[in-house]
Amino acid sequence: MESHPPPLVHRKWLLCTLACFLGYLLLSYSLEKAFRPSTTIVSFPGFHGPAKLTLSGDAEAPSANYVDVSPPSEAVMSPWPTTEAEMVSPQPSAAVVENYVDVSPPSEAAMSPPPTAEAELVSLQPSAVVEMASSAESPSIPLLPQQSTSQVIDEEILTAKAAGAARNPEADGGEVGKVVEKKCDIFDGRWVYDRQRYPLYRSHWCPFLSDQVSCQRNGRPDSDYEHWRWQPNGCDLPWFNGKDMLERWRGKRVVIVGDSLNRNMWESLACILYSSVRRNRAYVKWHGSEYKVFRALDYDCSVEFFWSPFLVELKEREDHAKILRVDKLPESANRWLGADVMVFNTGHWWTHRGKMRAWNYFERREQLTEAMEANEAFNRALRTWARWVDGSVDPAKTTVFFRSVSPEHKRENLHWCYNETHPITHQRYVQLFPRSMVELVERTIRKMRTPVTYLNITRLSEYRRDAHAAVYTSKQGKLLTAGQRQEPARYADCSHWCLPGLPDTWNVLLFASFIGTPTIPS
């Protein structure tokens, strides 16, 4: 018998039925995904121990997946030292003063159900020894074992509350129902992995970025270090917008003075602003490594960098002897005057020893000496700078900042930057920069008549071992060769930072401090 194909109407009915069935499956999958909390598992390889996560299931949380690690409820703290270094010009000594932070992990950690894609890394606060205690009030669920294809956090991320953050006395004795606000400590917080908002710009948007910090352009294969955002505890930083900053700085002049790490900060700020305007309405000029300037023409705004690693004059004689004049500012100081915003730093060049030391003699009151201790010379130089600021800067016109020490991550710190792709979650970090010098800076600022805002970026930066240039950098103006990259012990730069990267956060904090520190209910 001859067979015939089924009527056309039957085939259409079959196709419609199949399409409806597939649509139903797709709709069911979408609804299930939308209403089922999901979990982002973040791995920090190389650590061992129990992993505990806290996951939020709030329906009003943002749509991105995140892992929120709840901080311990208590912290016992005592002061600790800090770190910074140079890679361009003389290198810091391998070890100056050895202090370390030894943090005992909490006995328990917790977890509750979640939405959203951010991993939080909670920061340590100033202390020589920090002891953590888990909160007993919040419910805890142990992290269930994952399949072999999943990765989990091997160390619980630690936090400590800011030292000396006392309650506002009005909060206890004030009127019932009265809300008392206090300033938020924007330097006390945690690192949040945020791919949606960070980085603030792309390196190829800024053709003037130096080879020293252009890690992606130099072949760095990973980029997670670009996506970490600093989140203060108890408040939010203002949304950072380059155009907003330029508008606030319309007709103003910003001057950044210091060593190559302040130059690192200047490159970051210049790139943030440059990427916010039309390319033909902004430009960057430089005169060697000692002076650089960014100008935004439509805003009549300039951001300048002046090289002065000691903040006082380093003079070379005809016999090539180098004299560090601790009671005299460099000649460029006359060009600092008139700025609306000033950002200073000095630090590790004072700790160099042997062949790395930049001076042969100290000079004070026109008398040369080799016998002056580094701490004494540092103190005298700071006082010289402070007298200049108090005598020459009009606080009604100029806002003055001093950036704290930027840490390094060498082998001596127990967290070598080479091949690191995640921030520190470990409990121990050795600091080589002398605490006595940090105290001299803080004491000098407190005694000044002119208000100086202390940008205390040291603690939050200590966690970012992953953000250094390492072997994706240049040395003496030339990119490292493939052979040199195979010798990280000799060539890895664990002092300077990739851009985009950590110095962008320094500038976000500079911006927040400039417009006014956020307040929190007390």
Describe this structure as you would to a colleague.
This protein has helices at 8-35, 169-173, 242-248, 260-274, 333-336, 374-392, 435-447, 458-462, 482-485, 488-491, 502-515, and strands at residues 65-67, 74-76, 99-102, 117-122, 131-133, 181-183, 189-193, 228-232, 253-258, 282-287, 291-296, 301-307, 313-316, 322-325, 341-344, 361-364, 367-369, 399-403, 428-431, 452-455, 468-470, 474-475, 478-479, 493-497, 519-521. It is α/β, with parallel strands linked by helices and 522 residues long. Residues 35-177 have low confidence and may be disordered. Helix 6 (374-392) runs parallel beside helix 7.
Structural class assignment = alpha/beta
Percent of residues in β-strands: 15-25%
Number of strands: 25
User: What is the number of helical segments per DSSP (H or I, 4+ residues)?
Assistant: 11
Task: Please tell me how large the radius of gyration is.
Answer: 27 Å
**Rounded mean pLDDT score:** 75
Spatial strand order of the main sheet: 10-11-12-9-15-18-20
Which spans have pLDDT < 50 for at least 5 consecutive residues?
35-177
Level of helix content? 10-25%
Question: Distance N terminus to C terminus?
Answer: 91 Å
Short description:
By secondary structure, the chain is an alpha/beta fold. It has helices at residues 8-35, 169-173, 242-248, 260-274, 333-336, 374-392, 435-447, 458-462, 482-485, 488-491, 502-515, and strands at 65-67, 74-76, 99-102, 117-122, 131-133, 181-183, 189-193, 228-232, 253-258, 282-287, 291-296, 301-307, 313-316, 322-325, 341-344, 361-364, 367-369, 399-403, 428-431, 452-455, 468-470, 474-475, 478-479, 493-497, 519-521.
